[in-house]
Amino acid sequence: MSGYIVGRFLQIPITLGIILIISFILIQAAPGDPVAALAGDYVTREYRERIIRHYGLDQSLWKQGLRYFQNVLQGDFGDSYYFKASVAQVIAERLPQTLLLVIPSVIFSSLIGIPLGFIAAKSAHPILSSGIPLWATLLNSLPIFWLAYLLILTFSVSLEWFPTKGMVNVRLMNTGIYYFLDVLHHLALPLLTMVLSQLAQILLLTRARLREEIKKPYFRTALSKGLSQQKATTHHALPNAMLPVITVIGSRFGFLITGAILTETVFAWPGLGRLMILAIEVRDYPLVLGIIFMLSIIVMVLNLLTDVAYSVLDPRIDFAGNE
């Protein structure tokens, strides 16, 4: 396992390099004037030329790219045009907010979706065996931004239980435990949106896979040896059913980041997703590249952790390539 993990870590810099090259080329080809983002539309010609020379925008594309990648290797992602601060500093201020939204959403959607899928697969009651999958199918068909607006209309506009935007109420100026509770209050709807958007697919897949496993010969063999239906399901069928579920959870991390961007935008949650939308709007190219770099690292690390979890559930897997 250790050799496999080392190999995967060695792949990360190569993948990041390819992602950055493609992103750099696409951003340079995008319409818009970066000088206007830096200095505004109404500047003198002399000041405009000074900005161009200072940032090397008069150089060829490959020279700009080479200089950028040399700086990245030294940990320098440049300065944000909009915030007038280093890209690393701006990202570091927003990253915890995104992780606060993404990581709990994966945990809660798995902790809720897997048991509900188990209940839907094993229950003989029609409300549970058919009602839960029907609810999950309807939920799975909703785009995440529609789901977000439905939650806002229900819990913010109608019931007035939760705020509609932001991370804290700046007018209250809370500190200590009150600040923590205020953050949780604002986090509730964005987190619920993320959880519900992932929960449905996990639930449906768990139900489908578990139903397949309990029809296989090994399950009937376990029952014939005296194991109860409950023990045979939890000790044999469920672990095997979890393997494709974990694979799907890992493969959806890219979609999870996309969902986080949309969710942060709807709820004005101050994370990397909302920051990226702002950076694109104001043509802050160094900040866009820095955010892409950071989000790519998050996705690749989470995928690596998924592979490790997969091997724990199925020790038969040989990371050298054999089973």
From TrEMBL:
Membrane topology: Multi-pass membrane protein
Residue ranges that the Swiss-Prot or TrEMBL entry lists as coiled coil: none
Transmembrane segments: 12-30, 99-120, 132-157, 177-206, 253-273, 285-306
Domain ABC transmembrane type-1 positions: 95-306
Alphabetic keyword roster: Cell membrane, Membrane, Transmembrane, Transmembrane helix, Transport
Subcellular location: Cell membrane
Any single biological process term in GO: transmembrane transport
InterPro entries on file: BPD_transp_1_N (IPR045621), MetI-like (IPR000515), MetI-like_sf (IPR035906)
Record keyword Translocase present: no
Pfam family name, one: BPD_transp_1
Gene Ontology CC: one annotated term: plasma membrane
PANTHER family the UniProt entry points to: DIPEPTIDE TRANSPORT SYSTEM PERMEASE PROTEIN DPPB-RELATED
Sequence similarity: Belongs to the binding-protein-dependent transport system permease family.
Entry protein name: ABC transporter permease
Source organism of the structure: SAR324 cluster bacterium
Lineage: Bacteria, Deltaproteobacteria, SAR324 cluster
